[in-house]
């Protein structure tokens, strides 16, 4: 049976096929065209694409290509062009006698999309009767229509020659009514002219068009910069978008461009004021820019093609991403090889190198020679979140110990020098006299000459609003997707903060941790009192309380430095029920908004459950509730009538669960008493011994926080009595705090803490050092007394009530810094870090030495392929324990490319598992990010790669 008869038999007897175009699957992605597909009601399901379609004799006649989910229809790709490519490859092998490294398969195109339309439709388009009769006469029996031009790509070979609605009659003198015939003629005429005869509205036309090589308009290279994938616009997308081929196209926005709201599928027209016609133009512009530069970018999108949009792009100033890499397809090996896209002497690279080694006050790092697809796209899934832990550098730990003991004279000298520097700056900038404020004179006495730069205060604003407005700041926070640590649940945050310190060399802003969740983030501050936007950096993340301190450089404010001021803090007296306060905050348009409210409960205990993917949550905190506010998304501060700050009106993140499997992120706002913030500020200003950190070019000690790492919750004394608590203790606790009338109970100990195995769930904490304990603040004060005591051993003598008995127990405390997570490793496409506090708060760490925590994974990576997902610990690799990141790095250093690795994991639910995966060091090298507080820089270091990237 001949091939034609076999195909005819299969077509008519087996599936009752019909020839039909495959329905367009995506308007901004890949979809086939100029091809007939076979259709059958086979009920093919997803995942079977590419599988063979066979006839009754077992011979392949097509490939399964797709299906329609709303019906049983499936579409199969005929093998005609596949057979042609296969024969060309075989001929090449036969000619050279050996397997050729690469074979050129000629593919021709006119950059025109045709549709097959019936004769009835072509007649309506103006096809002459004699032409139709001629076509019917020479075409195979059963021909039902002709090819009609549907679209033409701008500036392609057929542009301004063919138009939609043109009916194709002849091609090189041959009547063409089938896609296969047309494709054959085009493929055989690459680089040559081809004769076309068409009819346009009944008028015959003859054209000569040059057939273009389809490979020449198929991108074989792309640029990766800060996670963005940029390449010449392909024929496929040019056809979809009606743009010419070769324009600079954003396939993935990555971090730098998405931060500027540049969407996918954009066409870059201008960058830094220069026209961008090709990818080389873009690379040339990037090579002239320094890290941290803010430059304009113009782009256009196909959905709004007639209007260019302009945005401001901040060039990546950190070391989170590798320097720009140019990937080029190697047709011999089939791999995409990367090389540095810009010269080593370019400002982009030089500024990074200089910053990492010369300028200690910069966040840039030295250039890296390795990047990976993890830089290109790190997918954020609800079940794949980042977790991390606080890890201090060893040398910092030594310094801190010596500072506490006072044994190191060198450290003491450094501390005194920092104290002198801080003293020379002054303390919190005070406001002017209240009489001046009432009279509308809100300008600093030294800024009369720049009075026109001061923001005008609304005359009908409350006094508190007028006083506090110069201290209000709007935050815009971006977290790079490549390093979303500690379970952070979003990449973009907004919120309001308040300036608590402002001097010539240091500005500090307090804000909630639902706005600044992690230290590895880009922060921009906009000031209510002066129209300027400047960068800032996280200097302190409180491990328990819901606030962070962010530093900015006052010199960057220019003339606005004299207009902007720090708020006056009023930590005492504490707010009480019924007190009147002013809730003041900023709208997105930086307009101050305020209202008078009444405190309904000044000591509500926060109770936030753990999220599905553990992330920071406030614990052991009492917050303030008001009778009225501005809704759950409005943050700000609470002040008295004179504008003195009594509380931070902060946003809290939580997760609401619906049923057993559905959950939704939610936020609410409550007041955080300013007392805790003022204590940390006091330590920073006074230079309390702690780990040094470079802030605005000056080494400053940042405070430690001593904690009882136990999650507590209050229980009413009436309930405690039911558990057997004696009347004496009930009366003692009630006398100590007649307002709360509660006792604190243990909800759980953080895994790995010094309190673990000493306190149990349900224990009632009655007293510390014989002093009754009724609230969280009592425990914090007891911990602070340990720091103030010279001979303290860091333990608390606690009286607890457990199962009907009073017990005396000595419990150790833990010391944490405010840096947050400072180290991560990317291995096989997964983000790995030490377990952070939210994970440890679950009360469980693997018995096998704790292990390293898989925080996130990337689509297309080896861990994705082999199923090593997030929310689990890696405790062994090839039988070698990995109790911490350093041990893990030493193990994976010895693993080779394409080697299968045996990995033992433990899930958050405690279930152990062993799996294998294959390394791919070509696309997924192993690298780490480390933050060094002493230099205030993030360093990216390649741990293991297939080979050094070509420079």
Task: Briefly say what this structure is.
It is built from 21 helices and 53 strands.
Blueprint of the fold:
Blueprint: H1 3-15, E1 18-20, E2 37-40, E3 52-54, E4 60-67, E5 74-78, H2 80-96, E6 108-109, E7 112-118, H3 119-124, H4 129-138, E8 145-152, E9 167-171, E10 174-175, H5 179-187, E11 193-200, E12 203-210, E13 212-213, E14 221-225, E15 228-232, H6 235-241, E16 248-252, H7 254-259, E17 266-271, E18 274-275, H8 279-288, E19 294-301, E20 304-314, E21 325-329, E22 336-340, H9 347-357, H10 373-376, H11 394-405, H12 409-425, H13 434-438, H14 463-468, E23 472-478, E24 492-502, E25 507-511, E26 522-527, E27 533-541, E28 548-552, E29 580-586, E30 592-605, E31 622-626, E32 636-639, E33 645-658, E34 662-673, H15 674-686, E35 692-695, E36 698-701, E37 705-707, E38 710-716, H16 717-722, H17 727-736, E39 742-749, E40 764-768, E41 771-772, H18 776-788, E42 795-802, E43 805-812, E44 814-816, E45 823-827, E46 830-833, H19 837-840, E47 852-857, H20 862-866, E48 872-877, E49 880-881, H21 885-893, E50 900-907, E51 912-918, E52 926-932, E53 937-944
Antiparallel strand pairs: 1-2, 2-5, 3-4, 4-5, 6-13, 7-8, 9-10, 9-11, 11-12, 14-15, 14-21, 15-16, 17-18, 17-19, 19-20, 21-22, 23-24, 23-26, 24-25, 25-28, 26-27, 27-28, 29-30, 29-32, 30-31, 32-33, 33-34, 35-36, 37-44, 38-39, 39-40, 40-41, 40-42, 42-43, 45-46, 45-52, 46-47, 47-48, 48-49, 48-50, ...
């Amino acid at each position: 049976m001949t091939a034609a008869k076999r195909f005819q038999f299969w077509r008519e007897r087996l599936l009752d096929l019909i020839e039909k175009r495959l329905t367009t699957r995506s308007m901004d992605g890949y979809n086939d065209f100029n091809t007939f597909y076979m259709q059958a009601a086979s009920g093919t399901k997803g995942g079977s694409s590419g599988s063979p379609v066979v006839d009754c004799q077992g011979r392949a006649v097509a490939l399964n290509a797709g299906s329609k989910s709303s019906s049983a229809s499936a579409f199969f790709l005929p093998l005609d062009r596949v057979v042609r490519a296969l024969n060309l490859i075989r001929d090449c092998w036969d000619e050279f006698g050996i397997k050729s490294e690469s074979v050129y398969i000629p593919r021709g195109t006119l950059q025109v999309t045709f549709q097959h339309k019936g004769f009835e439709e072509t007649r309506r388009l103006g096809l002459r009767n004699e032409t139709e009769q001629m076509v019917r006469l020479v075409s195979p029996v059963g021909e039902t229509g002709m090819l009609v031009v549907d679209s033409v790509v701008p500036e392609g070979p057929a542009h301004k020659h063919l138009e939609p609605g043109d009916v194709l009659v002849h091609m090189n003198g041959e009547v063409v009514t089938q896609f296969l015939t047309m494709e054959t003629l085009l493929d055989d005429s690459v680089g040559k002219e081809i004769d076309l005869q068409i009819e346009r509205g009944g008028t015959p036309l003859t054209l000569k068009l040059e057939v273009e090589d389809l490979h020449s308009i198929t991108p074989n290279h792309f640029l990766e910069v800060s996670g963005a994938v940029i390449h010449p616009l392909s024929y496929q997308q040019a056809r979809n978008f009606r743009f010419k081929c070769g324009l600079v196209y954003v396939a993935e926005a990555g971090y730098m461009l998405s931060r500027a709201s540049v969407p996918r599928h954009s066409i870059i027209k201008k960058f830094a004021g220069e026209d961008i016609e090709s990818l080389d133009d873009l690379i040339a512009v990037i090579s002239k820019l320094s890290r941290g530069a803010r430059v304009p970018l113009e782009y256009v999108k196909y959905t709004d093609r007639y209007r260019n949009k302009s945005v401001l792009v901040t060039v990546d100033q950190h070391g989170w991403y590798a320097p720009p890499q140019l990937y080029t397809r190697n047709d011999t090996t089939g791999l995409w090889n990367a090389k540095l896209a810009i010269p080593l002497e370019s400002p982009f690279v030089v500024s990074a190198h200089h910053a990492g080694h010369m300028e200690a006050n910069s966040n840039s790092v030295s250039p890296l020679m390795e990047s990976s697809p993890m830089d290109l796209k790190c997918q954020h899934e609800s079940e794949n979140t980042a977790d991390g832990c606080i890890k201090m550098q060893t040398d910092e730990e030594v310094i801190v110990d010596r500072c506490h003991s006072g044994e190191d004279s060198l450290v003491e000298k450094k501390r005194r020098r920092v104290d002198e520097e801080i003293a020379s700056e002054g303390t919190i900038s005070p406001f002017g006299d209240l009489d001046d404020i009432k009279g509308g004179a809100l300008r600093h006495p030294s800024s009369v000459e720049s009075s026109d730069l001061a923001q005008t205060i609304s005359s009908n604003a409350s006094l508190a609003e007028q006083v506090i407005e110069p201290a209000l700041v709007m935050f815009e926070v971006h977290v790079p997707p490549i390093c979303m640590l500690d379970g952070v649940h979003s990449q973009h945050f907004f919120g309001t903060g308040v300036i608590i310190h402002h001097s010539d060399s240091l500005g500090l802003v307090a804000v909630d941790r639902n706005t600044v969740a992690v230290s590895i983030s880009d922060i921009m501050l906009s000031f209510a009192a002066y129209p300027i936007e400047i960068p800032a950096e996280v200097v302190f993340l409180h491990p328990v309380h819901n606030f962070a301190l962010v530093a900015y450089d006052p010199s960057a404010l220019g003339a606005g430095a004299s207009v902007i001021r720090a708020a006056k803090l009023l930590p005492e007296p504490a707010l009480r029920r019924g007190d009147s306060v002013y809730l003041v905050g900023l709208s997105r348009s930086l307009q101050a908004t305020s209202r008078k409210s009444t405190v309904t409960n000044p000591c509500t205990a926060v109770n936030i459950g753990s999220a599905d993917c553990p992330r920071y949550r406030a614990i052991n905190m009492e917050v303030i509730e008001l009778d009225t506010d501005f809704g759950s998304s409005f943050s700000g501060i609470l002040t008295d009538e004179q504008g003195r700050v009594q509380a931070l009106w902060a946003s809290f993140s939580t997760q609401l669960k619906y049923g057993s499997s559905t959950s939704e992120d939610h936020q609410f706002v409550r007041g955080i008493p300013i007392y805790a913030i003022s204590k940390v500020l006091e330590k920073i200003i006074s230079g309390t011994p702690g780990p040094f950190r470079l802030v605005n070019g000056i080494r400053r000690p940042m405070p430690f926080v001593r904690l009882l790492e136990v999650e507590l919750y209050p229980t009413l004394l009436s309930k405690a009595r039911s558990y057997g608590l004696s009347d004496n203790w009930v009366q003692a606790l009630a006398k100590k705090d007649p307002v709360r009338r509660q006792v604190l109970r243990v909800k759980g100990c953080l895994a790995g803490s010094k309190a673990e195995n000493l306190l149990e769930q349900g224990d009632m904490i009655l007293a510390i050092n014989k002093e009754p304990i009724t609230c969280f603040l009592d425990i914090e004060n007891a911990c602070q007394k340990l720091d103030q005591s010279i001979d303290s051993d860091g333990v608390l003598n606690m009286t607890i009530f457990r199962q009907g008995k009073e017990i005396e127990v000595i419990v150790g405390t833990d010391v944490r810094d405010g840096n947050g997570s400072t180290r991560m490793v990317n291995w096989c496409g997964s983000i790995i870090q030490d377990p952070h506090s939210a994970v440890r708060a679950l009360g469980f760490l693997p018995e096998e030495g704790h292990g390293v925590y898989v925080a996130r994974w990337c689509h297309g990576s080896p861990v994705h392929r082999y199923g090593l997902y997030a929310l689990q610990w890696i405790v062994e690799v090839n039988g070698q324990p990995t109790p911490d990141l350093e041990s893990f790095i030493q193990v994976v250093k010895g693993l080779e490319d394409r080697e299968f690795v045996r990995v033992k994991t433990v899930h958050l639910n405690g279930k152990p598992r062993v799996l294998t995966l294959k390394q791919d060091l070509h696309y997924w090298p192993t690298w780490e990010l480390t933050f060094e507080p002493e230099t205030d820089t993030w360093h990216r270091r390649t741990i293991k790669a297939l080979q050094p990237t070509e420079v």
